[in-house]
Structure formats: structure tokens, C-alpha cells
């Protein structure tokens, strides 16, 4: 990106500040100043602005104390400039090396977290509604590219937002469209002092490789590559904003709170565009009161699929941090496991198709074989059943019992409660949840191995294909 004449971009930044409402008469802002050229340029610009229209500027500096005397010198520089320019100065010594050793947290995220906590505290103390930082166009380009390399959904391409309210405080990044080069130029021309962070290379290793190696390489193919990344971020921000808005609407329309979790109907959810489905899941997952790790794109897809696909109708997915997705027929629940308040518990539900062999999970082993013509069955083997394949809605599902399960037993007119059949057959209560039940795609109970076959899909002389299902109980389970 070329260097624009200084007045061009400063005028632009100021016009925007006025429009966005944070540069107003008698207003006050907290300026986060590290002492580097970006935030010192920002501070100088704020000074110019306050001279044109009174604005209280609180300069806040966090000394991470990573670099001993160098860190202290930076803090002193910021303090001195703030004093010279007649601004309030606030600082904190974060003692990050000791803190990290004790907590074992990640250096960058812990530093950021503690720094922002301090900045928010200062804003509260001075009754400021705005926090201004020196993020610039190069930061934006690097952020977007880093996310692309690491893997991101579209929302990640939005990069750094120029305005965002966090914890009731609006974070403003007025320099997001201004390049590092322009800011350095500004500092030199206006005699703005700044510190150079000698440890940048170690602390932002990946960012530095992107900055010093990758971007220059890509600029050989497109000299305005950084600019295009900044534009990409801006267009992604607009799209993201819109989608977020739509997701909120959908949330209000079709998501019902249930305990500490949420319920939604399959039919309604399936009617949403897939893009909206994923957003909605994200929104629901974000609703948890405890911070949860965000799931990756593939996991989102898996969740959306589990909630929409016709089979299996009963699913339980572990979402991490104690959260689950439970799909029961037409309804799904997403939320903490303990407050799921399900009327029943699913141990398993697995689909079976012809020539499939199922071992484990169901507490036994199923084998499905297709035979041409009508195969006479031996009625004496309770662990084998034959069905007219043409009469079945495939694939089949093997699951544990559910309350209210009804079956139409072979040789009986009408239906019978599976519960009663267990009682009649004297199946011990403790084992009932583990008895496999074979249903077809329509949810009809076809067979309870060892117990009863249904009257559905009987093999007759007219049967073209016979499906033989054999079950062997796994005694170990
Ligand atoms: N030690 C500090 N004290 C006060 N403000 C700081 C400090 N370090 C950074 N900032 C503010 O944050 C801006 C961005 O800095 P930098 O890119 O180093 O941070 P980062 O760790 O990537 O932060 P972010 O989480 O805000 O993206 C700076 O321009 C400055 O406004």
C-alpha cells in the first residue's frame, strides 16, 4: 500500500470519529498506548483532535515486564509524553513472567486478557465509554492471512472490527485502514517519539513470519495484496454482521429455552439455509454462561447434520465442556447434560443396512444378509428373523427402548407395549435398557431379538428377496 499524504488519512480518521460519535465535545476516551509507533501516532492524532474540539484523553499503559529495563523505559516514555501533552496517565505492572510461570497460561492470550482487564478497569474508573487502540491495516491483513492459514470459517475473515462493544465498553480502532508505513511516516514528520519493541520476533513468532516472509512474497504476485486483505475483511465484516442479525432473528423465532439449554424442532431447523443453521448452532453454543471452547467447522457440520438428517432419529453427541446434543425424533436439545431433563436415556441408536455387520455398542452383533426369493425360516431360533425385503423401509435402526414403545407382535392383532412385553418375558429391569430393538426407517419396531418378532414384512411365497438378520448377544457387555 502506498503512503498517502498525511492530511488525507488524518482527515478521514477524524471525520469518521465524529460520525461514530466518540469524538464529541466534552467526551472522554481511554487510549491504549504501548509506546510503539502505532499507538504513539494514535495518541498524537488524539491530541490534535482534542485541540480542535475538547476531548479528555486518559492514557493507559500496561507494563507486561517481559523485557526488564526496556519495558520500564517504554512505560516511562508513555508517562512522559502523556504528561507533556497534558493528559491523564494510568499504568499497571503486570509481572507477566511470574504470572505465566505460576498459571502456565498461554503467553499471548494471557497478556492480552490481563491488559484488557486493566484497560476496562481504567475506563470504568474514569467513566469512559470508549477504548481506543492503535490496530492498523497491517495488523488487519496479517490477522486475516493468519486465520486463513490456520483455518477459519467466513466469520474469521472479518478479522479485526473497527468498533465492537465488549463488556459494555466500545473498543474503537480508528487506524484500521492506515498502514504501518503511513504511521511511521507520521511519527517521523511530526517528531512523535516511540519505542521499538526488540522482542517482537520471539513473542509473535507466527505473526512475524507472516509479516516478514509471507506477505512480501505474496506481494510479488499482487503488489496491493495487503490492501485486498483489508478489503476482504471489511466485506466479510458486513456479511458477518448481516448473518449474525439473521441468526438472532432465527434464534428468537425457533429456539426454546429448556433448563440451561435449548430445544428446537427438526422440521423448522431443516427449513433454514445451511449457512444459517451453522450460525444458529454457534449462537446457541455461545449462550452458555461458562466460556466454552468454540467448535470447529467440521463439528458444526456434524451437529447440523445430526439435527436434520432423517436417520438415525436418536442421537447423542458430546459437545465438550459438559454440553450435549440430543436428538429425539423431531426435536433436538443442546445444552448441559445434567439439565437435559430427558424423559428417557439413549444408550445407543445405530443404523444398519444390508450386508452390514454391527459389533459392539448394541451389546451384541448383528448380521444382515439378503437372499433371493422366499427363504423359509426356522421359528425355533429366537436370535434370527426373516423379513420380506420389499416391505421394509431401509436402512434399519438398532436402538434401546424408549418410553411408550409399541409393537405389533407376530400373531397378535393390534399393538402391545414393549414395556409389558418385557414384564411378561420377565426381563430384569436392569437389563431392559440394553435389549436391542430393531426398527425400520419409518420407526416401526420389527424385531426384539430373543423376545418377539413383529407382524411386519412377513416372508410369503410372493417374497422376491428375503432379509435375514442374525443376532448374537455379546455376553461380555
Ligand atoms: N502494553 C500495552 N499497553 C497499552 N496498550 C497496548 C499495549 N500493547 C498493545 N496495546 C494496544 O493494543 C494495540 C494492538 O497491539 P498489538 O497488536 O501488540 O496487540 P495484540 O496482542 O495483537 O492485541 P489485540 O488483542 O488487541 O489484537 C496497540 O496499538 C495498543 O493500542
Automatic annotation (TrEMBL):
GO molecular function ontology, one term from the record: tRNA(Ile)-lysidine synthase activity
Cross-referenced CDD domains: TilS_N
Keyword check for Nucleotide-binding: yes
InterPro entries attached to this UniProt entry: Lysidine-tRNA-synth_C (IPR012796), Rossmann-like_a/b/a_fold (IPR014729), TilS/TtcA_N (IPR011063), tRNA_Ile_lys_synt (IPR012094), tRNA_Ile_lys_synt_N (IPR012795)
Residues the record lists as binding ATP: 34-39
Record field: catalytic activity: cytidine(34) in tRNA(Ile2) + L-lysine + ATP = lysidine(34) in tRNA(Ile2) + AMP + diphosphate + H(+)
Major localization listed first in the record, in broad terms: cytoplasm
Domain free text: The N-terminal region contains the highly conserved SGGXDS motif, predicted to be a P-loop motif involved in ATP binding.
Record-linked NCBIfam families: lysidine_TilS_C, lysidine_TilS_N
Family to which the UniProt record says this protein belongs: Belongs to the tRNA(Ile)-lysidine synthase family.
Protein name as catalogued: tRNA(Ile)-lysidine synthase
Source organism per UniProt: Cohnella soli
Amino acid at each position: 500500500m502506498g503512503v498517502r499524504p498525511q492530511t488525507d488519512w488524518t482527515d478521514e480518521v477524524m471525520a469518521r470519529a465524529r460520525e461514530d460519535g466518540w469524538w464529541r465535545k466534552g467526551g472522554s476516551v481511554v487510549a491504549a498506548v504501548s509506546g510503539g509507533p502505532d499507538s504513539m501516532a494514535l495518541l498524537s492524532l488524539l491530541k490534535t483532535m482534542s485541540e480542535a474540539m475538547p476531548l479528555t484523553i486518559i492514557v493507559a499503559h500496561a507494563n507486561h515486564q517481559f523485557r526488564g529495563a526496556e519495558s520500564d523505559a517504554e512505560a516511562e516514555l508513555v508517562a512522559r509524553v502523556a504528561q507533556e501533552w497534558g493528559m491523564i496517565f494510568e499504568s499497571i505492572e503486570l509481572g507477566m513472567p511470574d504470572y505465566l510461570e505460576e498459571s502456565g497460561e498461554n503467553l499471548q492470550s494471557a497478556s492480552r486478557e490481563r491488559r484488557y482487564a486493566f484497560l476496562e478497569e481504567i475506563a470504568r474508573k474514569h467513566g469512559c465509554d470508549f477504548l481506543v487502540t492503535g490496530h492498523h491495516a497491517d495488523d488487519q491483513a496479517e490477522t486475516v492471512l493468519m486465520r486463513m492459514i490456520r483455518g477459519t470459517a467466513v466469520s474469521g475473515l472479518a478479522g479485526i472490527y473497527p468498533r465492537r462493544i465488549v463488556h459494555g465498553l466500545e473498543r474503537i480502532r480508528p487506524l484500521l485502514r492506515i498502514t504501518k508505513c503511513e504511521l511511521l511516516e507520521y511519527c517521523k514528520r511530526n517528531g512523535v517519539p516511540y519505542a521499538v519493541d526488540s522482542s517482537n520476533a520471539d513473542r509473535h513468532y507466527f505473526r512475524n513470519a507472516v509479516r516478514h516472509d509471507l506477505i512480501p512474497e505474496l506481494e510479488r504476485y499482487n503488489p496491493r495484496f495487503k490492501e485486498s486483505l483489508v478489503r476482504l475483511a471489511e466485506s466479510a465484516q458486513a456479511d458477518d454482521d448481516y448473518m449474525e442479525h439473521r441468526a438472532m432473528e432465527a434464534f428468537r423465532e425457533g429456539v426454546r429455552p429448556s433448563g440451561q439449554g435449548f430445544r428446537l424442532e427438526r422440521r423448522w431447523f431443516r427449513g433454514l439455509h445451511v449457512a444459517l443453521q451453522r450460525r444458529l448452532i454457534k449462537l446457541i453454543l455461545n449462550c452458555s454462561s461458562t466460556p466454552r471452547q468454540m467448535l470447529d467447522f467440521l463439528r458444526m457440520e456434524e451437529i447440523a447434520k445430526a439435527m436434520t438428517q432423517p436417520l438415525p432419529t436418536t442421537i447423542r453427541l458430546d459437545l465438550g465442556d459438559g454440553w450435549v446434543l440430543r436428538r429425539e425424533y423431531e426435536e433436538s436439545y443442546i445444552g448441559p447434560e445434567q439439565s437435559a431433563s430427558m424423559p428417557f436415556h439413549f444408550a445407543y441408536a445405530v443404523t444398519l443396512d444390508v450386508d452390514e455387520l454391527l459389533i459392539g455398542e448394541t451389546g451384541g452383533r448383528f448380521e444382515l444378509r439378503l437372499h433371493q426369493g422366499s427363504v423359509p425360516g426356522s421359528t425355533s431360533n429366537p436370535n434370527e428373523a426373516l423379513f420380506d425385503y420389499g416391505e421394509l423401509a431401509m436402512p434399519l435402526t438398532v436402538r434401546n427402548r424408549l418410553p411408550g414403545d409399541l409393537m405389533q407382535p407376530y400373531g397378535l392383532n393390534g399393538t402391545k407395549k414393549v414395556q409389558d412385553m418385557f414384564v411378561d418375558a420377565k426381563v430384569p429391569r436392569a437389563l431392559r435398557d440394553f435389549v436391542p430393538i430393531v426398527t425400520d426407517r419409518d420407526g416401526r419396531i420389527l424385531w426384539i431379538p430373543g423376545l418377539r418378532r413383529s407382524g411386519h414384512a412377513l416372508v410369503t411365497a410372493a417374497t422376491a428377496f428375503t432379509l435375514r438378520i442374525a443376532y448374537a448377544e455379546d455376553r461380555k457387555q
